[in-house]
Design goal:
About 10% of the residues lie in helices and about 40% in strands. With about 550 residues, the chain is mainly beta.
Amino acid sequence: MKKFTLLSSLIAMHPIVAAAPQSSPLQVRQTCDFDSATSPECWGDFSLSTDFYEESPDTGVTREYFLDLVNTTAAPDGIERMVLTINGSIPGPTLYADWGDTVVVHVHNGFENNGTSIHFHGIRQNYTNEADGVASITQCPAAPGETITYTWKATQYGTTWYHSHFGVQAQNGVVGGIVINGPASAPYDEDLGMLFLSDWYHQTSDELYTLASSSGPPTPPNALINGTNVYNNSGTRFQTTFSAGKRYRLRLVNGAMDNFFKFSIDNHTLTVIASDLVPIVPYTTDMVSIGIGQRYDIIVEADQEPGNYWMRSIPQLTCGDNEMTLNIKGIVNYDGVDLADPSTKMYTYVDNCNDEPLANLVPFVALDAGGNGREEIMDVGISVVDSFFKWTINNNTFLSDWGTPTIQKVLDADSVYGDQENIITLNETNSWVYLVIESQLGLTHPIHLHGHDFFLLAQEAGATYTGGGSLNLVNPPRRDVAMLPASGYLVLGFKTDNPGVWLAHCHIGWHTSQGFALQLVERVSEIGSITDKDGIDSTCAAWNTYAVTNGIVQEDSGV
């Protein structure tokens, strides 16, 4: 089991100071120490019931990480190719923090000929917009040889990931996990950490980009579980060990370019305790559906006859292809049993790319969405420009400039935005906005919103949005990625409580680079006071010098 004794450590890290006088007596908190097996709901002076949008711990602790990005070769499935690694590995190192810590990440661009930026997916970046790490939006790309530092507060807890937000670079290996320790909605004995599910190509994503944009997405030859799998007679399976009777927490992330997965462990039941960074009322299932960018925290009890069992990550052919559809597997080996290929059978399933049932994704902290939100209607389409596919929103293909990010324009009162920047300006404070995203195309898309957990108000395939009467405002699911159904609509509600420039986009890597994105400029009058303009200008000066010297030409949407 995992334990944290928080109260004594908080006292040690902070001097005790007197609170300002109050008009009414302070309510003394009940202190309760976290123990994953016996008191998972506890977290010192806070708990699972804390509304972390309103309050969170301030530990005074800074977690500092140094990430070195380099070109190398590797063979995750036995087939060697050029890759981009973080500190020499794919996935990169996991960043760990406790709820309430400050996280400082120094990223050194050691690539030979690539700019870069690092996005901390799902981290709200409350009042730290410039740490969102999106090239052409919150920064210029960091040029080769440069180092950029991101600083943010862990106001949420749970499982997420970081990845490059520069072109299609992430899918060459520039990804890693984030674990923010905090309370949980069900008990467990051991935390097995991150479990990355990702499709994998035997060429770089840059080499495949022209093909993807002119002929449609190429079929991935493989997919990996935590950076490994077999291919033909090469490679190795992912393997983990269970001890009979123990309960294990697994932190699932879909870090794919194009594949939607269903995850399962033969003969075992999964208890789902969080979707993205939102704790939920636990539910059980045989199989979890996980779209690109989404995370699920699950607990698996080792309650079967000791042996070897297949762990499966199954790409759904409804919305993508993969050469290894039923052979993306790992092995769960019970302690004391010789490791061998299992003979277990998979659960039956219906191939689809649907989110987990919304009725199952009940946030543990019940919050209602505000009514009468400002509606922004986004119609998704596709066009062909110079023989390349381009995704459109309201007939505009998104395009921003690596050399002049939106944040720089916001800080320059004389700047003019172009139609292709797809900007929605939101100047009211703490007002509700409903993003209504519609598509008449028979494809599903994972939609990710930066800077916010959204309230998932409606989602329907094969239908057209007809107005607010169909919205669920009573404790709807909250998360940061949801599936836009085929020929249907998705309605996302959020409150304008976070000044900054925030991207919203399809998380299929090809589609983002082909223009499926928009951006929100939120509470523009407050952005300057929370932004290090000199730091942004310095990164941009280095990038623009590098780009001119090396003849760099931007070929995609900028994000």
